[in-house]
Structures are given as C-alpha cells and as structure tokens.
Amino acid sequence: VVGRNGCGKTTLLKLIAGEVDLLKRDSDEDIFIAKSGNPEIGYLKQIAFEDPTLSVDEEIRKVFRPFLLMQERMEELLQKMNVDQKNTEDPTLYEREIKEYTTLQEEFESIGGYYYEKEYDTMFRQFGFSTEDKYRPLNEFSGGQQTKIAFIKLLLSKPDILLLDEPTNHLDISTIEWLEDYLKNYKKAVVIVSHDRMFLDKVVDVVYEIEYKMTKRYPGNYTKFMETKRLNYEKQKKDYELQQKEIARLETLVERFKGKPTKVSMARSKQKAIEHMDLIEAPDRFDTRTFHANFKPNRETGKEVLRVDNLEIGYDKMLATIRMELRRGQRIGIIGGNGIGKSTFLKTLVGLIPPLGGGYSFGYQVDVGYFDQQMAQYQSNKTVLDEFWDEYPTLDQTEVRSALGAFMFTQEEVFKTVDMLSGGEKVRLALCKIFKTKPNFLILDEPTNHMDIVGKESLETMLKEFPGSVLFVSHDRYFVNQIADSLLVFEDDSVTYLPYRYDEYVERKNGTYAASVDQGIFRAKQAELEAQKKTVEVKAEAPVQKGKESYEMGKERSRLEKKVKRLEQQINKLESAIESKKEELLLPEHASNYTKLEEISAEIEEKEMELLEVMEDWENTEQELAALLENM
C-alpha cells in the first residue's frame, strides 16, 4: 500500500487488524471489511510487553506454544502406542492412535515444527542480536531494539495475514535483504505499507495506491505500478483530448450547417453523436505536491573537499579506522550494518565527537551543511515561522515565508508548533534551515527516514542538481543508487572505498557483474550492426501535372460534386474506422497489454488527424461549389 504521508495507509492497516472501527455514513452505502473464515491477523503494534522483566527468550518462546503442545501430544501418543500395540481387548485403539499421530506429524511438519528453533536462531542473528542477548531481560534493551524483538516474535508467529507498517525503517541493508527473501517465501498473505521502493520491487506482486482519497489496484511490483500509472494517465489524457477535439469538430459542423436546408439532417446527426458520447473525464494529475529548492552554494570549494587519514572513530572503544578523499562534485554514499560506526563517522567530521586517533581536514572554502537523523525527533513549542526566523533574524517576513513555502510550509501551516509536526515535516524544516545557509558540502545522516516516496524523489532531484559535494549515510538502497557515484562500505572489520555505484556493487558482490558487462557489450554491438543494416530509401515523386485552369461551368460543377461525394464517403469510412478502433481499446485481452493499447491509441490519433484534414477539404470544396452555383 503506497501513498502520501497522511493519506490513511496506517489507518487502513488498523482497520484490517480491528484496532479501529469503521465510521458509519448517513447513506445506504454498504461499507464493510470482509474476512474469509477466521484468519489470524498479525500486526506490529506499539510495544507493550506484559512483563518487561522476562528474558527475550521467554517472551519469544510464547509463540512456540502450539508447537510445544503438539510435541507433547505426539510423545504421549508414542508411549501409548507402545503399550496399546498388544491390546487384545480393543484392537482398533492402536489404529486410532496411529492415525492421530500421523495427522499431527504432518501438520507439525507443514507449520515448520521441525525447524522452528533454527529459524528462531537465524532470525535473531539477522536482526543484529547475539546469542547472549536471548537471556537478557526485555527492559535492558532500547526502544528500537524492543521493536525488533516484537518484530521477530510477530514473524515467528506466522499469522494468516501479516500486516507490516514501514518494516524496513531502522533496519540495515543486510537485514532488509534477508527480510525480502523471508517475505518472498512466506506462504501466507502479507500487506505492507512502505516508502522503500527497492523493497517493494522485490517483495510485492500487487500495489494499492491511495491518492485523492481514492484507492486503486495495480498488479505487479512498484516499478510496474509506476509504469502502469503513467501509461493510464497518458492514455486517459490522450483519449480526453481526442474526444474534446471531436466534440469541437462536431459542434462546428452543427453550428455551420444547421441553417442550411440541404444539411439539416447532417447537422442533427452530428448533434445526436455529441449527445450519445460517453464523456471521458480529464485525468487527475499525479499528486506530486512537494518541496523544491533550487539553491546554489555561496561559493565554490577547491578540488579537494575532504581528506581523512587513518581516522579512528568511536566512543569508549574504537569502531573503525577510515582513510578516504572526497573531491569537488563527488557524491559518496555510506552503507553498512547498524552500530559499526557510520553515524559516528559523520558526527566526528562535524566536531560532535572527538576522534580517537588519526585526523581529517577540509579543503579550501568548504562550507558544511549537516543533517542529523535526530532532527526528526526535535522538540520545541515554537511555531514553524518563529523556529526558522530565530535562526535567520535578518530576513524580512516575505523572505521567511518564501523560504518555508519552498518546503511546503504555507498559509496556516507556518503557525503550527514544532511539537505538532510529523517526523517527515520536521525533516523538511531541518532541510529548509540547512539549505538557507547555502553550503557547498552536504553531510547527511539518513535524510530520507520519515519521508514519503514523493519526498524522497524530490530530495533526489535536488541532490542531483546540487553543484556541490555530498557525503551521506542511508539504508534506502534505491536512494543510494540514485545519488551516490561511489561508496564507503562499513563492515565489522574494515571500511572500504569503492569507486562505483550501488547497482554495480551488488552485481560484483553476487558475481553477476562480468556477465552483465558482457551482455551490455553484446547489446551495443548488436545495435551497431542493426544501424549499419538500415538504409534510407528515397522515392522520387512524379511531378504533378497541372490540368488546364479554365473549365466550362458544367464540368467544374460536376467535378466539385464528385469530389464532395468522394470526401463524404471518405469521412464516413474514417469515422467507422475510428469507432472500430475505440471498441478494440475496450477488448478484455488488451486490458493489461499496454504496448498494444498505446499502439491502438496512436492509430486512433492518426485517423483523427486524417479525418480533420478530410473534413477541412470537404468544407472548402462545399464552399467552392456554393460560390460556383451562385454564379451560374
């Protein structure tokens, strides 16, 4: 389920889970949520462990109770069968016990009873916990860690319908990749609300979009959804424009010929054609209202922006040693697991944490703009207007409102207090304040957290157009792939600089890079050969022989009347062809064949243009004939 922040995605999940009730409308409309049978619904709610003094292991093992009960019953049956095998008083008892045991064993196997311990251990490690963490009490873990524990418990419970609201938030890339594989192989239903485009691409097979308070279904993953939405929009826009042209053409004919006795029936038929049309509505534009800021830095840096020499980072112990250079215009993305130093590195560079060893230096005229992910949790009882104005007191009100307006704080929104803002709104306010300083080097720590997809795309556009340099941390692989031209990869025992993009990093890691390069070379060579084969044929047109310019009146009249008749036949033929093509558009076999739909739409447009030309020729000929008849 995708859509803008605040459109109702999370509310929809709560409705399905039964956490909130449907509002009753004052109408006869039947509004309901139907569930087949009595499915078990799993939803990651606000953390509320009944007993926070329990160990993690004790809490998680609550979900294994059905497995344990089945195991106990199977062991009980085995003992009984050993005794009842020789029971001569009731020989059918042994058979009944075998049947029950066999049924239980099959069910136990089907729900993963023989490997739940292994699955538990794997999942626990993938979410960044150690074996020792299992035996620590819940209240020793941070809020974020408790969310992960609740998530593990939910996944292991294997509900019939798994509801996930932003499941990749605060997970590192390796954990997200593991979760993708897990959900792809999940044998029951999954409903996901997410702004993680790559995650959606790899996991989902249907997308529901909430836009303009309406929900629409799109088969396929996120990329397919966007392509289908674009094609649907373009097709509806084209159909709408063609129909408006056709209505205008018919109305012109009706107006022109309704007063002419010989053309009254024609005018009436065209009027009826207008009245019987199924009107096509103009398509809604994509809901792309978002922030924008085409800013340029106050000044340009030297060629070298940042040099890091054996910089040791950490708090009480060293997390990593880093060596790297960043040149003017470079965009380096930092990726890696949680807790191994990525954010610590950025905090060290901006002076919030002292280095443990080594050093770093900025180049000539470097002005840093720093975004910290904690800015999304910033609290203040000031209004948005005052919060920004206090930072830039020399600006007048028009300049302040203009700057805030560029980041979607308009009209009454500037009088909200900062405490009232959502996480995404706080991110926008923080970015607005940073960009107003016009830095030439942006250091960003998880800037896309709390942003909806349109917000992420807007930030991507801004950073692509930004003429300065960027160093950023992100777990959003799509965002990293769009922005970073090189990577700094943090692993447990090393930090490695890679001079290429994220998609190439994945290909090299998976061993598919060489094959993709070979395929690219092959395609380029193939295209080159195809281009060589193409030749342009120029056909000489025979010069048009001009007939005599003076004709007798009778012959001229006969010629014009024949031409009018021929053009009317041509008009009827083209109108029939257009109607036939429009009917073809509605055929069920073309419903999801967007290439075919585009092809048919193009043919309709071509025939519409041809019809307009023929109509114009017909009108001109009619006028010629009318003028001739007046002079006869």
Question: Brief description of this entry?
Answer:
The chain has helices at 9-17, 56-60, 65-84, 92-110, 116-126, 143-157, 173-184, 197-203, 222-257, 264-275, 342-349, 384-391, 397-405, 423-436, 453-465, 477-483, 502-510, 513-533, 553-585, 594-631, and strands at residues 2-3, 41-43, 161-165, 189-193, 206-211, 214-219, 304-314, 318-327, 331-336, 357-362, 368-371, 441-445, 469-473, 486-491, 494-498.
Using brief descriptors, characterize the structure shown.
extended; single chain; about 625 residues; alpha/beta; about 50% helix; 15 strands; six-stranded mixed sheet
Question: What percent strand?
Answer: 5-15%
Q: How much helical structure, as a percent, in the residues?
A: 40-55%
Principal-axes geometry comes out as extended
How many strand units?
Answer: 15
Task: Describe the protein's architecture and organization.
Strands 11-12-13-9-14-15 form a 6-stranded mixed β-sheet, sandwiched between helices. The chain has a 3-stranded mixed β-sheet with strand order 1-5-6, with helices on one face. Helices cover 48% and strands 13% of the residues. Mean pLDDT is 84; it is low at 535-547. The chain has helices at 9-17, 56-60, 65-84, 92-110, 116-126, 143-157, 173-184, 197-203, 222-257, 264-275, 342-349, 384-391, 397-405, 423-436, 453-465, 477-483, 502-510, 513-533, 553-585, 594-631; strands at 2-3, 41-43, 161-165, 189-193, 206-211, 214-219, 304-314, 318-327, 331-336, 357-362, 368-371, 441-445, 469-473, 486-491, 494-498. The protein is built from 20 helices and 15 strands. It has 632 residues and is α/β, with parallel strands linked by helices. A hairpin with a 2-residue loop joins strand 14 and strand 15.
